[in-house]
């Protein structure tokens, strides 16, 4: 992240010289807050690896273990086709979906910091329950608790980061959440690899999710709430003190505080934010809150991240090779997020979206062709030696494209485009759509893999093409724009200005 602080120049509509100043306080605060990404990333990484561990399957899903053994000589794509098994992964997103509107209310009334702490505590309890699970009911109950924790955290942390970071470097700071998410994924993949051969390995993998939860919760105890949140709750003295601390200059915070107070008054005038967001002037924000997370999940990255070990096992790679592939993909994803951190505030959001979309589309088509050549139309042929390496290469290029575009930007854009009057509600809708789409895709991915086989990657490729065109046509550039001035972005857009014009 530090590299990004030294490069580039961003647009700044208000001319406030605080927009580009980075203090030690804001740096530490944002790093601590961004560490909330650890819990979600760890869960993403751990789920797919655990579901390929024989001891885990034999304990909770013995029918799937038997099915996997039998499918090796019939249809490898159907080895793990089980709705009960996918429910283990997807149940988290149902809980996250339920938690999202609750979190939206809580971050407005109790603050961003407190919601982050609450999410961490619930996630910690869910991790402990999963590690000690003796039956499927305990396993699913633990997953639901993890979902509530993730739902609260994913709601509060991006908003926190966007409100604390200087406008000039908001992109770099906000991608920190996804960077820690990537650390969580990579850590989980490494743990899966080292414990997979032990009968108790799955317990350690699942139980260690309590570690990132503890890190995030303790960290949240040590940071201030955001000035926006304090103003929203009428704590103007504390808000000014928070601004002074994060901006590092007592004399230059009054204008920013006045903007926050004005935005807060507008927010209070909107007594029903859920109703307000459906007003015509907020149409652009609502469309982005729905379209961006929907498109992100239909890149296929969610299920690829969850089921990388499953995919490689399905096409004939051994468990060690499958888990190694997951580690490599996790490392590539983490590195690509760093690239995004460096360039997002220099070149803007739209360019990264477009480049990443083209890159992912090409790789999805290539993966489909490669799997067809390697496993045959019926999926009964074991993948020849060398093809699995080529498969991994294309998946790495695909993961890199996602890592520096749709991965961090799907969190960044919704957290920065909403005015204060509907910010919590807008982010809540964004997260709810993301959880809904993730639930559907993760629940039915293994069935789709079984029936569509190699064509599944073409399915995702078509969606990537659609969403890239959507970005080109409808997404305005938001880099360097202060949150309080974001409405001006829509006023200048060729299409959206008809909705917001004259209604600010």
Automatic annotation (TrEMBL):
It comes from the Eukaryota. It is found in: Membrane. The chain crosses the membrane at residues 22-42, 84-103, 115-141, 202-224, 286-310, 322-344, 351-374, 386-406, 427-445, 457-476. SUPFAM superfamilies: MFS general substrate transporter. Residues 29-479 form the Major facilitator superfamily (MFS) profile domain. The keyword Protease does not apply. This is Major facilitator superfamily (MFS) profile domain-containing protein.
